[in-house]
Amino acid sequence: MSAIESDTRYVGTRVARVEDNRLLTGRGTFVDDVARPGMVHACFVRSPFAHARINGIDAAAALALPGVHAVFTAEDLNPDVREAWHAVAGKDVADTPRPPLAEGDVKFVGDPVALVIADSRYVAEDAADLVAVDYEQLPAVADFRRAIGGSNAGGPVVHDAYPDNVAGGMAGMPPDEEIFSSADCVVSENVYQQTYVPVPIETRGMVVEWTATTGELTIWASTQTPHELRAFSARLLGIPAQHVRVIMRDTGGGFGQKVVPMREDMCILLAARKVPGALKWIEDRRENLMSAGQSRHVDGTVRMAFDDDGSFLAVDIDFAQDVGSYPTPYPVLTTAAIGMFFPGPYRVPKASFAYQTVFSNTAGLHAYRGPWQYETLAREVLLDIAARKMNMDPVELRRRNILRGDEMPYVNANGMPYDHVAPADTFEQAVKILDHESFRKEQAEALAQGRYLGLGFAAYIEPTAAATGHLATEGCTIRMESTGKINVYVNGGSSGNSLETTVVQLTADALGANIEDVATIQGDTAVTPYGAGTQGSRSGPMTAGAVDEAGTMLRERIVAMAAHRLGVESDEIELADSRATVRADPEKSISFADLAYRAYYDPQQLPPGTSASLEATTRFTSSAMIHWANATHACTCEVDVDTGHVTLTRYIVSEDVGAMINPNVVEGQIAGGTAQGIGGALLENLAYDDDGNPLSSTFVDYLLPTATEVPSIEYGHVEIPGPGVGGYKGVGEGGAIGSTPAVINAINDALAPLGVTVTRLPASPATIVELLEGRGH
Q1: Same domain assignment for residues 484 and 411
Q2: Which end of the chain is less congested by CB atoms within 10 angstroms, N or C?
Q3: What is the pLDDT of residue 609?
């Protein structure tokens, strides 16, 4: 039996978050809270054009401003790059161009052209305005759908090395056109998803301090991957990794945007060795919306074929995804997942897909919570369209096709192996919580009164904790101090996913300790073992495995020491309440504090040959390639057909993430993702005009959901154990995957009596009114 499974006093309970005290009292430490002696500040000079040639840069006026130390251009920084690959892709995978500062020409509005260093951010911003850049404007293409073909079609080219503007692509099996031509029911739609972005409450930022005398680099960063940032920085600068230390204290949200260092991060790292003190860069909100990258933005044609009973015969998806000008490698690699996962949690005999990733003169694609989310959006929207075409309730159509637990293991039509899941269970639970029949009665009564209510479902299956490459391992050190108190060291870091709380719960149970005796140290590469960080819904399963291995090792040492001290065999000892007790004689016990004191200060009393160490370090390697999680989202709404305003009235999520380490944490992760998906369905749109000018670079124009738009969420939990330690699965991304299609389906259900279907997002009031007016309403 593993250490975690031997005692479950805390795991599975709603333990309060240990990080909340400092965060809620304003005592967190974010990058902007870091101050170093002699620190200087950075500000980027950014392009006002979507595409232009740089004929010259004159920094004389900026350098004359008091307090300005330097103005760096591409020729100052870019040649210093040694290697710029990240572990998410690896050093041998072909990558797209990504120069730190713009070289030769700029490729989107916000492209960093120069870097100003000054005594304060205020002076740096003033100086940035004084840097004169001679631009020669060039033709730009902001709409990636019009970019395909590039010079071959007589249009602008984003990168000369890609004259057709196509970064890459892939196709699976070709579609079975015979099925689509002969099936009893075939539906086909174009589904367009707009650009929307993570918008973390804390923007990007870092403080970098170079100590020339020792050749050491210290980085305080807002990052999801401190150890990989350390490795990336060492490669970038060509210095030994042991001379680089990354410190991540608190991070105000990441959501994928802070996994891979971007071009601005590279610039700050490169410039840090050229300035007189530590260098701080904090991105402002306009920069974040304009330059931190884009997400989603997919356009595709999806098809489904059914027999006369409503059973799937075949599905096909053909799509293109915008990767902007300088994409990070992660989301480009995950674009294939849209096609691979398109059959979803359903019994689909045949599936086909094809896609292209396309450059445009906009900010580059970056990862965002479930970067393959379009597959669920396109599939679930089309399922509802198919149900209406067959005069069938969408619930019944899903019920006929959704996979059951007794069908596992199951390999989807694209070769993805599902196991340890039962999508039908979460679906039926959501239907039950909703009380489907009662809603349909309420809907009919409302329609008779001229009110338009709608119900939307979305079911999905998602890979979590994918054990590929550097993601397959996670380190952990557990140390009992001389006082008997326990510290657990993991890569981790506080980025809103409550990893501090969950590892404390796991460790307390692994050692039989009282939870108040356990603390955690995370996010400092100088003291924590290597880990791949927060990405891919991996933190729960992977840290659980790492804590289990280290906890098992340390537990054995504690038991051996206690057995010797109490004069019994090891198998007679049990650990609980931070004590070792003889199972048959509870009066015979010794506290962890007493054991630790003797191990540290009186090791001669230990059995001969016994190590005095009360510390264990392990590097857990997952044996499970994927932990499949799944969920069903259900949403009800009312649409005002005069104004196009949508009011969400109920929201239900039934999710299976295996055993739950902490239900509060699970529900918090679901709620956060769901809110982001609701924003993507109704409000958020990182829009550009035809010339590539951003139209939503402030919160005046980029609309985020608030408590007014997001209803209270009702939760249902199905616990089918995953294949790893403790049966845990990931939960970080699911809420953001299922919520957008659930909301769109609810809107379409409400508008179905009027013959209106939303297939272009977002479903803003203007969009809905335009659709209604187009149908003569």
Answers
A1: no
A2: N
A3: 82
- Which residue, of 621, 639, 664, is where some domain finishes? 621
Length of the chain in terms of residues written: 777
- Residue 294: predicted pLDDT: 96
Same domain? 379 vs 411? yes
* Spatial separation of the C-alpha atoms in residues 141 and 481, rounded to whole Å: 61
Per-residue HEC secondary structure of 666-722 comes to HHHHHHHHHHHHHHHHHCCCCCECCCCCECCCCCCCCCCCCCCCCCCEEEEECCCCC
Burial of 224-245, coded b for 16+ CB within 10 Å and e otherwise, reads bbbbbbbbbbbbbbebeeebbb
Backbone φ and ψ of 307, nearest 5°: -85, -175
Cα radius of gyration (the chain): 28
Query: What total of structural domains would you count in the chain?
Result: 3
CA–CA distance, 399 with 427 (Å, rounded to integer): 8
746 part of a folded domain: yes
Please check whether residues 507 and 475 belong to one and the same domain: yes
Stretch 201-217: mean pLDDT = 97
Q: What is the pLDDT of residues 157-203, one digit of tens each?
A: 999 999 999 999 999 999 999 999 999 999 999 999 999 999 999 99
452-464/473-480 β-pairing: unpaired
Verify that 538 and 663 share a domain, yes or no. no
Ramachandran quadrant class, 296 (left: phi over 0; alpha: psi -120 to 50; beta: rest): left
Has residue 67 been placed in a domain? yes
Overall average pLDDT of the 239-248 stretch: 98
Residue 595 and residue 656 in one domain: no
Nearest Cα neighbor of 457 from 390, 381, 404 is: 381
- Tell me, what's the pLDDT at 333? 78
What is the rounded average pLDDT of the residues 475-485?
98
Domain hosting 455: range is: 373-465+625-774
Place of tokens 């590892």: 503
Angle between helices 734-751 and 374-389 (to 10 degrees): 30
Query: Is pLDDT of 478 > 70?
Result: yes
Q: What is the mean pLDDT of the chain?
A: 96
Does any domain span residue 153? no
- Could you tell me if 71 and 205 lie in one domain? yes
Q: Is 516 in the same domain as 586?
A: yes
Number of H helices, E strands in the chain: 20, 28
Coil, strand, or helix at residue 490? strand
Residue 128, both tokens: 């940035």
| Domain end marker among 594, 621, 648 | 621
Nearest to 667 by CA among 17, 30, 21, 4: 17
Which class for 659: exposed (0-12), middle (13-18), buried (19 or more C-beta within 10 A)? buried
The H or E element containing residue 42 is strand 40-46
Report DSSP letters for 727-766, one per residue. GB---TTHHHHHHHHHHHHHHHHHHGGGT----BS---HH
Q: How confident is the model at residue 243 (pLDDT cuts 50, 70, 90)?
A: very high
Domain shared by 246 and 110, yes or no: yes
Q: How confident is the model at residue 1 (pLDDT cuts 50, 70, 90)?
A: low
3-state secondary structure of 155: coil
pLDDT in tens, 40-69: 999 999 999 999 999 999 999 999 999 999
CATH of residue 769 = 3.30.365.10
Buried b (16+ CB within 10 A) or exposed e, 278-299: bbbbbbeeebbbbbbbbbbbbb
**Segment 548-572 mean pLDDT:** 96
**Taking a C-beta distance cutoff of 8 angstroms, is the pair 534, 369 a contact?**
no
Q: pLDDT tens-digit profile of 373-390? A: 999 999 999 999 999 999
Q: What is the pLDDT of residues 6-45, one digit of tens each?
A: 567 999 999 999 999 999 999 999 999 999 999 999 999 9
457 and 345 Cβ atoms separated by less than 8 Å:
no
pLDDT band at 724 (very low <50, low <70, confident <90, very high): very high
- With respect to residue 273, please indicate whether it lies within any of the assigned structural domains: yes
Cβ neighbours of 537 (radius 10 Å): 26
Give the residue carrying structure tokens 């293991």.
409
